[in-house]
């Protein structure tokens, strides 16, 4: 039965996943080319000074791409379900609602996470090609809040889409927007790294809040 | 005979408006029950309550012995549900639809599904989203038939269908009901179709319900026609349950025999010329009992 759910989720997102991969890889390549271009145009000491002392984040252009990816994949996965309240088909299947929701979310988060892993790998390899290991690690740690924003964006979009009552929709939109905005509010390398475990822990209530939205969706009637 | 659906003291309100008050009815196993009501009387709401997509304000609904707002996967497995508008996954092809549902229902009958699909003459890689309303309805019909459920709940299956597709539904549903111990609960706005299918009807009007066997209703509820000199604005009472007037021709609906109707019309000062009983279809009876608007 779970394979059927997997098939359904895959059919919904496959083209969006391909587009997201292309965009993410495109930005990763752009960052590689930008850094190579900077290094060929400027003296290495100047680039080092920019990176270490001025905290210039060379992969800054990528920061909204994970958020866009999370939002896109959430919409691709759940928009077809809320159109005409089509999710009633899945909710009538002979399987537990929460189990089905968990599997759908796990699939979506797994896909989002896999894309971010590819991004992180590219950032690390690109930075490692020109900078010491510590700078490459710091670059990945700097990007982690952006990836977290992508995951928040995914969960927030799902909660807003499944929610049936407009006041709750607006409330979720505001809460998730504030949380995501916080992840983008700093500058420089690794500014949010100490808080990342706490921000990561907040994913659990966000995850559970989607289950509540799904429960209300089922009770929402026609 | 046990009941497949039982509704006790069901009350439901929406935005402060009462939809039902103390609704009671049951659907016995093996019956084909049609729910009839004018638009906006709450037929889809009732189906949504029965399938757990809406929690009633009060009262209980039992489907296959379980509370409808908390149906177990095992009971959902035994219920084939056709949602209003023939909801289907439009991003899937015919093959993908079959593969998806086959994995969800252990007793899935692929041959039943593909038998109905092949009637359409479409390639199996045809996307559901690119189909006409009728073709999509056929996919949904194939899905619920291949599940081989014990109870079928069809919410306005005839919506948007031409005569051919409606007839296909009737043929398939007849065959399904003939298997024995299979129950169908159906709503439709094409009342004459239900006449060929159901054995029990439930009339839903202004939150109240009347359940009656089709044969009994068609035998006891009567249509009379007569000519009238002037505009006959008849009151609805114990004898006159409904009437329609087109020009001088009046159709009157009643549970009473012709003599009682004639006497009643005379007592109202109405000269009914050529009063006689006329053949009545279920649609006539529906209009006679529920009114047009």
Structural class, from helix and strand content of chain B? Answer: alpha/beta
Describe the sheet with the most strands of chain B.
6 strands, mixed
Question: How much is the radius of gyration of chain B in Å?
Answer: 22 Å
Beta-strand percentage range of chain B: 25-35%
For the terminal residues of chain B, how far apart are their CA atoms? 37 Å
Total strands of chain A: the figure is 0
Major sheet summary line of chain A: none
The outline of chain A comes out as elongated
**Regarding quaternary structure, how should these chains be classified?**
heterodimer
Helix content of chain B: 25-40%
The parts of chain A where pLDDT drops under 50 for at least 5 residues are none
Q: Tell me the radius of gyration of chain A.
A: 20 Å
Most residues in contact: chain pair? A-B, 24 and 33 residues
Q: Return the string of H and E elements of chain B.
A: EEEHEEHEHHHEHEHEEHEEEHEH
CATH topology of the largest domain in chain B: Rossmann fold
Counted up, domains of chain A total 1
Return the average pLDDT of chain B rounded to an integer. 88
Bulk shape of chain B: globular
For this structure, what is the CATH class of the largest domain in chain B? Alpha Beta
The overall strand count of chain B is 14
Structure characterization notes:
The complex is a heterodimer of chains A (222) and B (293). Chain A is mainly alpha-helical and 222 residues long. Chain A has one domain (2-218). Chain A has nine helices and no strands. Chain A has helices at residues 2-41, 44-52, 65-82, 87-91, 97-130, 133-162, 166-183, 196-201, 203-218. In chain A, helix 6 packs antiparallel against helix 7 and helix 6 (133-162) packs parallel to helix 9. The longest helix of chain A is centred in the first third of the chain and has 40 residues, at 2-41. Chain A is elongated and about 65 Å long. Chain A starts with a helix and ends with a helix. Chain B has 293 residues and is α/β, with parallel strands linked by helices. Chain B has ten helices and 14 strands. Chain B has helices spanning 43-50, 73-77, 94-104, 110-118, 133-146, 163-177, 191-195, 214-220, 258-267, 282-290; strands at residues 3-14, 17-28, 32-37, 58-63, 66-67, 79-82, 151-155, 183-187, 200-205, 208-213, 222-227, 242-246, 249-254, 273-278. A six-stranded mixed beta sheet of chain B has the order 6-7-8-3-9-10, sandwiched between helices. Chain B has a four-stranded antiparallel beta sheet with strand order 2-1-4-5, with no helix packed on it. In chain B, a hairpin with a 2-residue loop joins strand 1 and strand 2. Chain B starts with a strand and ends with a helix. The interface between A and B is medium-sized, with 24 and 33 residues.
């Amino acid at each position: 039965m779970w394979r059927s759910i997997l098939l359904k989720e895959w059919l919904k997102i496959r083209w969006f996943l391909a587009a997201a991969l292309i965009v993410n890889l495109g930005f990763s390549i752009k960052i590689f080319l930008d850094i190579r271009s900077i290094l060929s145009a400027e003296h290495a000491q100047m680039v080092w000074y920019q990176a270490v002392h001025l905290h210039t984040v060379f992969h800054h252009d990528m920061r909204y791409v994970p958020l866009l990816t999370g939002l896109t994949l959430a919409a691709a996965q759940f928009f077809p379900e809320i159109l005409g309240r089509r999710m009633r088909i899945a909710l009538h299947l002979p399987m537990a609602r929460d189990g089905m929701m968990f599997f759908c979310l796990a699939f979506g988060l797994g896909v989002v996470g896999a894309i971010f892993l590819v991004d992180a790998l590219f950032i690390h390899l690109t930075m490692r090609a020109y900078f010491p290991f510590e700078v490459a690690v710091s670059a990945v740690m700097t990007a982690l809040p952006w990836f977290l924003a992508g995951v928040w964006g995914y969960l927030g979009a799902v909660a807003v889409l499944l929610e049936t009552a407009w006041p709750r929709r607006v409330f979720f939109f505001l809460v998730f927007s504030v949380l995501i905005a916080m992840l983008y509010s700093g500058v420089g390398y690794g500014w949010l790294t100490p808080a990342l475990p706490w921000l990561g822990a907040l994913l659990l209530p966000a995850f559970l809040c989607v289950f509540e939205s799904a429960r209300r969706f089922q009770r929402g009637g026609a | 005979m046990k009941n497949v659906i039982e509704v006790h003291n069901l009350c439901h309100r929406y935005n402060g408006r009462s939809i039902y008050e103390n609704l009671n009815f049951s659907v016995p196993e093996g019956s084909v029950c049609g729910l009839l009501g004018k638009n906006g009387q709450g037929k889809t709401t009732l189906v949504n309550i029965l399938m757990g997509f809406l929690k009633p304000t009060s009262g209980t609904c039992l489907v296959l012995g379980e509370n409808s707002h908390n149906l177990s996967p095992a009971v959902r497995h035994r219920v084939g549900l056709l949602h209003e508008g023939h909801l289907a996954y439009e991003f899937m092809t015919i093959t993908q639809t079959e593969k998806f549902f086959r994995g969800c229902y252990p007793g899935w009958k692929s041959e039943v599904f593909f038998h109905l699909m092949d009637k359409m003459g479409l390639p199996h890689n045809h996307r559901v989203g690119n189909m006409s309303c009728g073709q999509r309805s056929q996919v949904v019909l194939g899905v619920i038939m291949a599940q081989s459920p014990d109870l079928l709940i069809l919410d306005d299956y005839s919506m948007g269908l031409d005569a051919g597709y409606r007839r296909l539904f009737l043929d398939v549903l007849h065959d399904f009901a003939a298997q024995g111990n299979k129950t169908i609960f159906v709503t439709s706005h094409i009342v004459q179709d239900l006449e060929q299918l159901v054995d029990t009807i439930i009339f839903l009007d202004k939150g109240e319900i009347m359940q009656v066997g089709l044969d009994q209703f068609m035998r006891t509820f009567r249509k009379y026609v007569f000519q009238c000199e002037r505009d006959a604005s008849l009151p609805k009472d114990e004898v006159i349950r409904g009437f329609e007037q087109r020009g001088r021709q009046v159709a009157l609906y009643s549970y009473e025999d012709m003599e009682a109707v004639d006497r009643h019309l005379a007592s109202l000062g109405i000269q009914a010329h050529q009063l006689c009983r006329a053949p009545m279809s279920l649609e006539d009876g529906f209009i006679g009992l529920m009114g047009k608007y």
